[in-house]
Amino acid sequence: MDRNLGVSRVATSSTDALAYVDLCHWGRFGDGHQCRNSGTTHTLSPMDIPDHALFMLAINSPSDWCNIQNNYRWHG
Question: Are 23 and 36 in contact (CB under 8 A)?
Fold first, then answer.
């Protein structure tokens, strides 16, 4: 299961970066944002499918990566 989460190997220590899982934006398809070396932005997406592969750092609650609330992103 660890390989499904982006892990390269079983951890050899608690600080083994190759055993860290991918980043996650719940409800967002994998487009490169989930990679630990992806770029970041503080600008949230105005749509359900962003036009870039940046990881969006939410600065306000509810810590969503998208400006619009859509509770059905997982229904597709």
Answer: yes
**Residue pLDDT, tens place only, 5-26:** 777 788 889 888 788 888 888 8
Half-sphere exposure (CA, 13 Å, Cβ side) for 70? 17
In angstroms, the CA 4 to CA 27 distance is 16
Model-level pTM? 0.70
Largest CA distance in the chain: 41
Give the 3-state DSSP-derived string for 12-76, with helices as H, strands as E and coil as C.
CCCCCHHHCCCCCCCCCCCCCCCCCCCCEECCCECCCCCCCCCEECCCCCCCCCECCCCCCHHHC
